[in-house]
Design a protein that fits this description.
Number of domains: 2
Largest sheet: 7 strands, parallel
Order of helices and strands: EHEHEHEHEHEHEHEHEHEHEHEHEHHH
Oligomer: single chain
Strand order of the largest sheet: 3-2-1-4-5-6-7
Strand content: 15-25%
Shape: globular
CATH architecture of the largest domain: 3-Layer(aba) Sandwich
Number of helices: 15
CATH topology of the largest domain: Rossmann fold
Amino acid sequence: MIKIAIISGDSSPTGVPSHILSVTRNLDKHKFKVLVIAPPGFLCKKCLEANISCHEVEMGGIFDRNAENKIRKELEKFKPQIIHFHGMRAGWLGRLAARKMDAKKIYSEHQWVKELHLSNPAYEKIQLQALKFLDRWTDKTIAVSKPVYDFLLKLGFNKKKLVVIPNGIGEAFFHSEPIQKPDGLPVIIGTVASLNEVKNHRNAILAMTKIRKLRPELDFKYQIIGEGPNETKLKRLVASKGLDDVVHFLRRVESVPERMRHFTIYLHVSKSETFGLAAGEAMASRLPVIASRIPALEYVMTKETGLFVNPRDPDDIARAIIKLIDNRRLREQMGRAGRKRIADNFSEQKMIQRISDLYSEVIR
């Protein structure tokens, strides 16, 4: 049995922890024994509910020596053959903690692509230098999409260590079907994303204002699932534009697949993505998707599965939404094509198989 320690610096109910849960729940239990190390929160709670060993370690930042020492002690106790790091914080603290250990080291990059820029350019430069520096203590680096692979290659990563393993979409979304609503009910546009600057909710909300001006007769609602630092600011924007009856913040929901069944159109206009997991989930749920014209979303989607827009142009977003509201047949065609594309290329089953094969490969 291969012992694997998976380390995450994030334990919130967002993309990376959900990805880790997907992997740990579905790995062959007869072949792999897993320990997850992460801060207290959603990830550890869900691991314990699924009978997956999880040790909580508070991680204050990349210079948190106390966290580094605690991670090292847990690794020395567990004695893994493979240590898999997810994200910058875990990648830094974990690889420093494990640098002298005789274990294979795998790093998954979930954040960086060429469109991403931090508000502090100096800190961005430091992060990227650290990312490249840590490659020396890594046997394999997983890029979760081709755009991530291209960015890391340009940054100077060792090509022989790089491998693309796209994120996988869970089975629950393939069993989700849009609810067929009778005529007369409002069209529901939906988004699932953290409420932060990168997810670009401001321009999505401004697009709703544009729709009202262009087509005041349209009956539509915009539902946003997610939490984050921009919640108060976005709610003020909605109030200032008189959109309280249109834009609804659902925060966290118990079942995203079930909530997606109520959507008519899925909207995903992020400024930056490494994969676009929620867009893929919407496609698996047979929803037409309106998405930013950025490399990661062009990697997941095609023009047959949705419409691409300029994320910085609320008018362009509004026009795309109106086009799909007006054309039910096009929505259904795109929904069918989207589900097929995800099933053929980005299913959870395919992702688990690729990761499992990589684990076996590095041990050999």
